[in-house]
Amino acid sequence: MAQLTFDDVRKTFQEGNNEIVAVDDLNMEVRDGEFLVVVGPSGCGKTTTLRMVAGLETITEGQIELDGRSIRGMSPQDRNIAMVFQSYALYPHMTVFDNMAFGLRESTDLSEDEIDDLVTETSEMLDIKELLNRKPSELSGGQQQRVALGRAIVRDPDAFLMDEPLSNLDAKLRAEMRTELQRLQEEFETTTIYVTHDQTEAMTMGDRIAILDHGELQQIGTPMECYYEPANEFVAGFIGEPSMNFLRGTSDGGVLRMEDFSYELSQSTVESIGSTTEITLGVRPEDVEVVPEATQTNDVAVEVDVVEPFGKENNLYLKPEGSDTDDTIIATVGGRKSVNEGERVGMRLPEEHLYLFDRSDGTAIRHPTVEAEEITPVAE
Amino acid sequence: MSVLTKIRNTMERSSSPDYRSENDGMRSYLKSDFFRSMPFWLPPTLLMGLFVYGGILWNFVLSLTDFSGVVRPEYSVSNFDFEMYFRMLEDPSFWSAARNTIVLLVVFTLVCLVVGLCLAIIVDNLLKGQGVFRTVFLLPFALSFVVTGVFWQWMYNPEMGTINTLFDIVGMGFLGQDWLGDPALRLWSVMFALMWQFGGYAMIIYLASLRTIPQEHYEAAKVDGAGFFKMYWKVIIPQLSSASVSIAVVLMVFSLKAFSWLYVVFGSNPGPAADILGVMMYREAFAANQWAYGAALGTVLFVTTVVILAPYLRYQYKRGEL
Question: What are the ABC transporter domain coordinates in residue numbering (chain A) (predicted)?
């Protein structure tokens, strides 16, 4: 178990005469026993960050500390860190047993008997005991995944690093392994950095999420914080499926003027905007209300452009009437709500659910004001 | 009768049940892939059959006679015997040639594999100039045995050869040897020269094979705590086994064919220290006119080659690569 600290970490690559910044001034702390998910689009520097911790990439500037000691310049084999690769990277010529024992043989002084016990114990826990004598090529993707996990777990390292370990599995298996991984991590309480581009994995698995974009840390916080209190437009758009709707507007007194409609703001919201004029309004699809007709002040008459049925819910792509553009606003409504394409309805954006961002730098200037609801058990 | 009517009549006739049953077998045969592809495979098959396999067979038949170039060989079954093969067993020069052939086969192949592997790993780890080194090491392979034979003859020359001269220059003249003259050194000098020529081939195949191993395997081994040598020894090199097998087979076949190199350097008699079966076969047949004996040696060489190749071909066949 260990704590990992990133101190002004910077990584650049040289490509010809150009310097490419992969990770820029990264400062964050992974707490002892924490499951931190690093998430971001391709090329955001998340894998590079992980590889720097593993020792597979050098650190250009700054420090990474493992339990207070700098690991900069230390070779991978001296770090006592285990990594699970996206492709699993199982050694094809070795049996499952040898794959799992390899790290123990190389990095510890344990006797063969002790190694045997540890491997058997771990394989039982992962339900792969009967596969120990097989070669990786004789295993299914899910089984290979378990072996790759077993290989990391058996070493009882200071930290686990996982580089998109579930991305090669089919959807059902992925959901299963997600739960399994969480269970294992809670059992071992080993500090884990988990890299993914999948925001669902980030939301469901992490104790905290670190969101990276263009090598810069955008926000680090619990999944709920990142979802309900995104630091900026990027985080707001990245976390959540379907993505948040963004509408560009200009603040004009108490009115927010968008391309196709205007929105009257309450006094408290106007105060939070202050002198900012260029505003982006954000609203999550599940917060967009669809009403039969636009009757209230801020209601907008819209046409249903496309309906995407998911069974439990429908995603409606709404287009404000008279709009010249193809831009639509996504609303998520109950699956049993019958709405047809081409239908004219009203769209209501409740003010308490609105996000506002300063368009000049994307920072959030207002989050929804709705308080978290508590589930109170019914008194007997 | 117009042409059209003729065609129509033929078509009608051919579609009648009687006519069809007669011609069905012939027709489907003519339409089969086997028949239709004949122009492509038949001529090469006939040529190969006659000049390669026919030649081998004839050579074997010749080895059963006692043809020694004076009178025409007598091809009658009553004359056939294995006399030439028994003669081989009693011939000390056969045993020295066979021993040298086996030493060359085994030592040259192993040394080449090791050198090729080391070169491949070094070149693979170079950050710059990979292309240059690849070409430099592979170039000797592109040269013919005749060229490299003459070249090494000069290199090994005891008086003015590059090797002894270099030793003199660095003040280690005492290391200079009569590389090709000294019977104790002769076979090793030959193997060194052949290794120089074929090490690059082994390297290039190993290098290509190394490229197919995913980077993650190296990384996983490092993270698992393996150092540079352990990583290669336990994780990477075992994955090169199929490359090793195919390189070894090619090298072994080349070592059996080292005839031209030896012939260029030593003529038809390299002496017992460097004689190999290929050279002995040539000497017996073309220099000593012992045609039948030469043919018997040729058959032994052929069988040796088949014994080396067969397991490999079988292995390739089972893997579906043949």
Answer: 4-239
* Residue A277 token pair: 């004029």
Whole-angstrom distance, CA of residue A163 vs CA of residue A288: 35
Determine whether the interchain pair A93/B238 forms a contact, defined as Cβ–Cβ distance below 8 Å: yes
Span B94-131, pLDDT tens digits: 999 999 999 999 999 999 999 999 999 999 998 888 88
Q: What is the rounded CA–CA span in Å between residue B138 and residue A370?
A: 73
Task: Name which of A101, A91, A150, A107 is nearest B233 in CA terms.
Answer: A91
Are B216 and A89 a contacting pair at CB < 8 A? Answer: yes
Query: Which residues lie closer than 8 Å to A113 by C-beta, 6 or more apart?
Result: none
From its phi and psi, is residue B47 left (phi > 0), alpha (psi between -120 and 50) or beta?
alpha
The CA distance from B225 to the nearest CA of chain A, in Å, is 4
Query: How does residue A378 score in pLDDT terms, banded at 50, 70 and 90?
Result: low
User: How far is A262 from A252, CA to CA, in rounded Å?
Assistant: 10
How far is residue A317's CA from residue A322's CA, in Å, rounded to a whole number?
15
How many Å apart are CA A269 and CA A255, to the nearest integer?
10
Report the candidate in A24, A62, A363, A8 with the shortest Cα–Cα distance to residue A213.
A24
Using alpha carbons, list the distances in angstroms from residue B120 to A91, B133, B239. 20, 10, 14
From the list A182, A172, A359, the residue with the least C-alpha distance to A278 is A359
Instruction: Report the distance separating Cα A95 and Cα A105, nearest Å.
Output: 14
Q: State yes or no: pLDDT of B219 exceeds 70.
A: yes
Alpha-helical regions (H) of A55-198: 96-107, 112-125, 141-153, 171-188
Q: Which residues of B touch A (CB under 8 A)?
A: 214, 216-217, 219-227, 230, 234-235, 238-239, 241
Mean pLDDT, chain B, as a whole number?
87
Nearest to A87 among B216, B223, B238 (CB): B216
Question: What's CA A88's distance to the chain center, in Å?
Answer: 21
| Cα–Cα dist A209/A225, whole Å | 9
User: Which distant-in-sequence residues (6+ apart) come within 8 Å of A374 by Cβ?
Assistant: none
Q: Dmax over Cα atoms in chain A, in whole Å?
A: 78
The residues, any chain, with a CB within 8 Å of residue A269's CB and separated by 6 or more, are: A351, A354, A356, A366
Residue B122: what pLDDT? Answer: 93
CA distances from B135 to B53, B126, B141 (A): 37, 14, 10
Contact yes or no for B84/B63 (Cβ under 8 A): yes
How do strand A208-213 and strand A35-39 relate by DSSP bridges? Answer: parallel
- A162: tokens are 């996982």
Provide the whole-model pTM. Answer: 0.81
Question: Among B219, B226, B241, whose Cβ lies nearest the Cβ of A89?
Answer: B219
A318 contacts A193 by C-beta, under 8 angstroms: no
Residue A70 · residue A63 · CB < 8 Å: yes
Q: Which residue has the tokens 């071909």?
A: B313
A25-73 tens-digit pLDDT: 999 999 999 999 999 999 899 999 999 999 999 999 999 999 989 999 8
CB atoms near residue B104 (< 10 Å): 24
